[in-house]
Amino acid sequence: MSARTPPRLLDLAGRHLLRADDLDSSTLESLPTELFPPLFLEAFDGYRTETLKAMVQTWPFVRLPLRALIELPHVGPLQAVLEALDVLLAQKTRSRRCKLRVLDLRNTGQNFWSMWLGASSDGCSSSREAAVAEPRSTTKRPSTPLKVFIDLCLKKRSLDNFLTYFLRWVEQRRSSVHLCCKKLKIVSMPMDSIVKVLSMVQLDCIQEVQVSCTWNLSTLATFAPFLGEMSNLQRLRLSHVHGSAFKKQEHDHVVQITSQLRRLGHLRDLHLESSSFLGGCLDQMLRCLKSPLDSLSITKCWLTESDLTHLSQSPDISQLKSLDLSGVTMTDFRPELLPVLLERVAATLQELDLDVCGITDCQLEAFLPALSRCSQLRFFSLCGNLLSTAVMEKLLRHTAALPCLRQERYPAPQESYRPRGVLPEARLAQLRAQLLEILRDLGKPRIIWIGLCPCPRCGEDVCPHMEPIIYSGPCFCC
C-alpha cells in the first residue's frame, strides 16, 4: 500500500492486522507509516504484547511518546515495550524501518497521537510524514545510546512499582540507555533513595529542580554535589530548609552549598521559601550566582536589613523581571532600603509581590517615586499590609502612570476595620465607592483588586477571594 491509500482501506487493513496471530517484523516492513500510531494504540490498549514488541522493533519514528498511554498500576504493555527495546539494543543490525532513538515517558505525547489518529482517518500528506518520520534505509546498530526522557516526582517514602521496575531496567543497561530528566521534584523521600535515583540520571539534562519537603542544612549539603552536576539547571526552588548560618557547623554547610551553586551558569529562576538559614547570609547565596537572574523569589523568610542591602547591591538582579518578597517582614527596616532596591530593577521589572511584608505608610511613601519608574511593571501586589486611606490614594495616583500595569492587588485601608479586625459590609461598600471615585478622578480605565486581611471566607492573609473594582473610562453618552 502506498502513502496515498484511501483512509477507509487503511482502517480495514489495521483491523485485519490486529486480528492476525502471526503479526511480526516482516509484515510491518511494508506497513504504511500512518498506520503505525493507531495500530500501536490498539495493541497497547488491548494488551497485545507480541504485536507491541514487533512494532517497537520496526518503529518508523525517532521518538516513541509512551507516558500518556500508561495506566498505573497496569504496566504490562510497558514491560512488553522494554523487552522489545532489549532486543533492539542487542542487535548489531536493525530493521531497515526502525528509526527509534528516544523513549519519551513525559506527559507530552498527546499531540503526536492525536495528529496521527487524524492522519489515519483523514489521509496523511507527505509533508506530515516527513516531519516526524525519516526515510527508510538499512540501519546499522547506532553508536549513540537510547535516550529515555522522564519527569521525576519523588513523593513517597519508597519508589512505586512502576519506578522500581523501570529504574531497575535502566540500571542494568547503563552503557546503552541514558536516562534524561528535565524536571525533578522532591516531595518526600529519604536521601539514600534520592541518591540512588540520581545516580542513574544524566544530571546535565536537568533544567528544573523543586524541593518541597522539610530539610535541614546538612541534608541540603548532602544534595548539593548533585546540584553542582546539573550544569544546565535553569530553575531552582527550595522550601523549608532549616538551620542557622551563625552556628559554625551550619555555616560550613552553607559554604558547601554555595560552592556547588557557583557551578550553575545557566540558573535564571531562584525561589527560596520558608528557609530560616537565609537570615544573615543572603549575601553568600547571591555572591555564588554566575549570571543575572530573570526571577527571584524569597518568601516567608526572616531577613535582616543587611540582607536587603546586599540584595540591592547584587549585580545579578540588574535584569530581574520578577521579584517576590512576600512574607518577608520589613516593618522595622529603614524606609530608604526599598527605594534603592526598586531603582536597581526599575528598567526590567515586570512583576512585584510585596504581600504581608508589614510595610508601613512611611516606607510606601518612600518608594513611590522609584515604583513610578518601573515602566515595564505588569503585576503589583501589596495585600496584607496595613496602609492608610491617604497613602492608598497616593499609591493609586503613582501607579496610574505605569503604562503596562494590568493586575493590581491592594489591601483594604486600615481605617476600614473595626478594632477586632472586622470589616463590616456597609463599610466595605463605602470603601469600594471611595476607591472607584479616585479611579474616576484619575480618568484611566483600570481594574484593581482589594483584599481583606484576614479573608472572611478562608481566614488567610492573602487569597484569591477578592472582588474587583472596575473603572471602564469616562462615559460620553447623552
Proportion of β residues?
15-25%
Uncertain segments are: 1-6, 119-138
Q: What's the total number of strands? A: 20
What's the mean pLDDT score?
84
Q: How many strands, which pairing sense, and closed or not: the largest β-sheet?
A: 12 strands, mixed
Strand order of the largest sheet: 6-8-9-11-13-14-15-16-17-18-19-20
Q: How large is the count of helical segments?
A: 17
End-to-end CA span: 72 Å
User: Level of helix content?
Assistant: 25-40%
What structural class do the secondary elements suggest?
Answer: alpha/beta
Rg on CA atoms, Å: 29 Å
Task: State the shape.
Answer: elongated
Layout of helices and strands, plus pairs?
Blueprint: H1 7-19, H2 25-28, H3 36-45, H4 49-56, E1 63-65, H5 76-90, E2 93-94, E3 102-104, H6 110-122, H7 126-132, E4 139-140, E5 146-149, E6 152-154, H8 161-171, E7 177-180, E8 183-186, H9 191-198, E9 208-211, E10 215-216, H10 217-229, E11 235-239, E12 241-242, H11 248-261, E13 269-273, H12 282-287, E14 295-299, H13 305-313, E15 322-324, H14 337-345, E16 351-353, H15 361-372, E17 379-381, H16 389-399, E18 407-411, H17 425-442, E19 446-451, E20 467-471
Parallel strand pairs: 1-3, 3-5, 5-7, 6-8, 8-9, 9-11, 10-12, 11-13, 13-14, 14-15, 15-16, 16-17, 17-18, 18-19
Antiparallel strand pairs: 2-4, 19-20
GO cellular component, one term: cytoplasm
GO biological process, one term: positive regulation of cell population proliferation
Protein name: PRAME family member 9/15
